[in-house]
Amino acid sequence: MFCRKCGTKNADGAKFCISCGAELASPQPTAQPAGPVPPQATVPQPTVPQPTVPQATPVAPAGAPVPPQGAPQQPFQQTAYQQPATSVKKSKAPLVIGGVVAVLAVLAVVGFVVMPMLNRGPWTGTMMLDGVSANYDHEFGIKTDGKTVTVYDQDDVVTGTIAGTREEGDQVFYDVKDVSWGSWGGSSFSASSVTDKVMTIIVPKGASAAKPFGRWSVVVSATDTDDDEYPLYVRSTTLELDEDGTGYYEFASEWGKESDVAVADPTNSAYDPAGSGWKHPLTSSGSNGSYDVEFNDDTYDLTFTDGK
Fold first, then answer.
1. What are the beta bridge partners of residue 168?
2. For residue 268, how far is the Cα from the chain centroid?
3. Could you count the other beta carbons within 10 Å of the beta carbon of residue 146?
4. Is 220 within 8 Å of 198 (Cβ atoms)?
């Protein structure tokens, strides 16, 4: 190695110059420059001339811009090597997980939206009170398959089609259209001047043969266009069965103005079946859709069945 101070050649590994005594620097690994190496000042070597090695002209890589003819040539600046971006192969797991989450979300919507809608369809089945007392034939029944409905009331049979349902509190209302009235209601109801005949069925929300408790009603209203004194008509039959084995069997019928017929409407606050018909307190015994009902010292059969 050569002394950086006086240029004297010293043995490799020597720590001090044999000529001037200067401390010799240990050789350090030279880092590869990112660009062209600037010329270094060299110490003249009087005793050991160094051969001149011609430097290779840097060659621009393919695709590098070529300076125009006649322009002064600039040394090629080699940029630091950049590793090309590696294409990372994505796992299918996130897609699978996302798909599962999406499916679960759809199922949740089906579970919380669609299924309740299906389960909230019309009650289907039969409710029938049947029996003959000493003075009166008591028969009251409702039968529906969810589309059509049949009402049994005092030996009269009325049929119709369910036009729509709605819920109010703990009861479900069924609006019935295309009613075949037959001889129901007598001559006054059957007169040609009586129009706007409407039938509504009211059943307990969530009713079933195993749990039929609540109020069951059939309400009919109409208008007599030829009678100014008694223009409106309301008639209703209601059966109430409570879990404690008590309840009521009610019937109301009234012609008159709006305030008059309210006493026959079980949905009206002025409802009073005892004032326009009758209200029989009852007691019942039984379960699972079969009951013995007693009122006025007579016993009647009350049955409930579920539709399919």
1. 171
2. 36
3. 15
4. yes
Residue 77: predicted pLDDT:
45
Sorted by sequence, the CB contacts under 8 Å of residue 208 that are 6+ apart come out as 123, 125, 304, 306
pLDDT band at 87 (very low <50, low <70, confident <90, very high): very low
Q: Quote the CA–CA distance of 283 and 166 in Å, as a whole number.
A: 30
- Mapping DSSP onto H, E and C, the string for the chain reads CECCCCCCECCCCCCECCCCCCECCCCCCCCCCCCCCCCCCCCCCCCCCCCCCCCCCCCCCCCCCCCCCCCCCCCCCCCCCCCCCCCCCCCCHHHHHHHHHHHHHHHHHHHHHHHHHHHCCCCCEEEEEEEECCCCEEEEEEEECCCEEEEEECCEEEEEEEEEEEEECCEEEEEEEEEECCCCCHHHHHCCCEEEEEEEEEEECCCCCCCCCEEEEEEEEEEECCCCCCCEEEEEEEEEECCCCEEEEEEEEEEECHHHHHHHCCCCCCCCHHHHEEEEEEEEEEECCEEEEEECCEEEEEEEEECC
Closest CA to 141 of 132, 131, 130, 133: 130
Q: Which two tokens stand for residue 14?
A: 């020597």
User: How far is the C-alpha of 290 from the C-alpha of 80, rounded, in Å?
Assistant: 94
Report residue 219 as tokens: 């309400």
Q: Which residue has the higher pLDDT, 258 or 83?
A: 258
227 contact partners, CB below 8 Å, separation of at least 6? 193, 255
Give residue 69's Cα distance to chain centre. Answer: 74
* Burial degree of 258 (CB within 10 A; 0-12, 13-18, 19+): exposed
Prediction pTM value: 0.61
Contacts of 25 (CB under 8 A, 6+ apart): 4
Phi, psi of 16 (to 5 degrees): -130, 150
pLDDT digits (tens, 9 = 90+) for 96-133: 444 444 444 444 444 444 433 334 457 899 999 998 77
